[in-house]
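Hi team,

As requested, here is the filled-out complex form for the XIL run. I kept the field names the same as last time so the parser does not choke. Let me know if anything looks off before we queue the next batch.

— J.
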Amino acid sequence: MFRTPRPRRSHRALGALAVSVTAAAVAAAGLLPADQAGAAAGSLRSLAEAKGIYFGTAIGQGDLDNTALTTVAGTQFGMLTPTNEMKWDSVEPSPGSFDFGPGDRIVAFGQAHSMKLRGHTLVWHNQLPSWVDKLPASQVQTAMRNHITTTATHYKGKLYAWDVVNELFNENGTFREDAFYRAMGTGYVADALRTARAADPGAKLYLNDYNIEGLNAKSDAMYNLAKSLKSQGVPLDGVGFQAHFVVGQVPSSLKANLERFTALGLEVAVTELDDRMQLPPDSAELAQQGRDYANVVTTCLAVKGCVGLSQWDVGDADSWIPGTFPGEGAGTMYDNNYRPKPAYYASVDALGGSTSNPSPSPTPTTTSTPTSTPTPKPTDGAACKVTAELNTWNTGLTENLTVTNTGSSTVDGWALSFALPGGQTVTGAWNATVGPAAGRLTARNLGYNGTIAPGGSVSFGFQATHTGNAGPAGQFSLNGVVCRAA
Ligand code: XIL
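And here is what came back:
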């Protein structure tokens, strides 16, 4: 059972709606087509890497079957952390009996997408099998060393970093009195770090915790420990700041706090970013969440020695938040259907993904048709139904279209033609290439979503500006056959 104490919740954001989504950012923002083996042009990953940092995510083995999730993970992020698969209870559920299968599957996904990997975590009071808690104190050090050595040796050479010790402090800055502390006192931290270094000299070794993002008693404790370990020559390379935030509550001292750690010669990373709110989310909260994400991204970029940031989980649908903080959620940059939220666009903006500061290849899909997209043959006619979801604001809109194959044969490669209301201009799209920007448009499938089985459906979406008419698209036809209205 996960028992992170719930941080105090403050007033909910009540500010006016101010979704700052620029067309330029959208044009540069993860608009597929994606290179499925690496970053999508203009993705979070490529924009971050162009600035010298990484942008990561976390997935579990159950996520690997979810195509929408893995598509986002594999194209938008350049660092991967297993959510549970390298924790002690997964790796060594009984003494000396190791299972690396689940962790290896996450590593394989990361490697297939040329992602960096973060090991999480070797020593933690949570998700610790009960046999460790029950050991006599005299046997805990041997068990800890054996666990670290075996696990870090298994993944040797594959990981960018290890969270060697996770969540070691109480909120008031005292050491958490877990099995390791009870057996070895504070010295277990140095012992764990030295053991990890011996097993995998190439991995950066981190201490990782939550509620240490701002200046406070808990971050003071981490700072004092890090300083002391460095002065003793203990192999510590970095401190991870989990950053499980509540919307509107990113600490104003984040930058100053990170900088005091980098001044010790350590690197710092935001390791588990999310930004939760009461469910259901409202648009003001989502806009505030965008500002929060932008703030964190901008801060990491501004701190020399901040090597990157990782979000915890991929989208709201797979986030750990609703299961741990009842009634709360919507903490990630992607909604329940893996569509980008204002926080995604704000992050892209903060990474410089705009025309005033162009990303390496910000080609809008509205003006390009990749040669890899198969052009459907005229015989690929299909019976179809299209449903639309529309979100509008004063000058813009996003529309998500779900195309269902209502015929009896499989559609293999699709082109959906449709009419945009006058005054609307498409500025970006996801899960399809869409063009031209106005009038009668055609959306074409990408490499991974060209097949629609009978009864199956695909979704794609676009963002547009409007001059007053924010109505939905209409007059759909799929591969030349008129679709019936939903
Ligand atoms: C969470 C996982 O995401 C959940 O699936 C699991 O049930 C509990 O742990 N801080 C951490 C992570 O360091 O390991 C936690 O992961 C989230 C909080």
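Two things worth flagging: Residues 66 and 318 are 10 Å apart (CA to CA). The pocket of XIL is lined by residues 2, 4, 83-84, 166, 242, 272, 320 (CB under 6 Å).

Thanks,
J.
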